[in-house]
Prior knowledge:
3 strands; three-stranded antiparallel beta sheet; disordered N terminus; 12% strand; mainly alpha
Amino acid sequence: xxxxxxxxxxxxxxxxxxxxxxxxxxxxxxxxxxxxxxxxxxxxxxxxxxxxxxxxxxxxxxxxxxxxxxxxxxxxxxxxxxxxxxxxxxxxxxxxxxxxxxxxxxxxxxxxxxxxxxxxxxxxxxxxxxxxxxxxxxxxxxxxxxxxxxxxxxxxxxxxx
Length: 161
């Protein structure tokens, strides 16, 4: 059986400040998290959503808490979150999201990793030795994010399942 090589690479001075992080398996990129390819489309989509829904700017008030709690701000935050979620559903991630997933994953029990709201933590859990073959076969990932399905398939191939 051929040995498979899994690496994490980054472009930048260090992991915290990198603009691009990617995971490779046998020298093939299996996941990429790049700030520029995430932030630019997110901002474009956010602007489109603001225009499409005719969202208004946050009205000025001397009391910052009034501004913070305004319905206009809530609508803008929702549009921003939707823009981010849409890109992540397409497999486009910001480098911090992957960095955060790697850091938190190492601290979570496997149960928390499998149930995490962070797609990349769930994906990383597919490679975890704490998930044996039987449990791997019993996982239902039909409705899971494509990245989770991809990592699941890689693991199943490695296990001969």
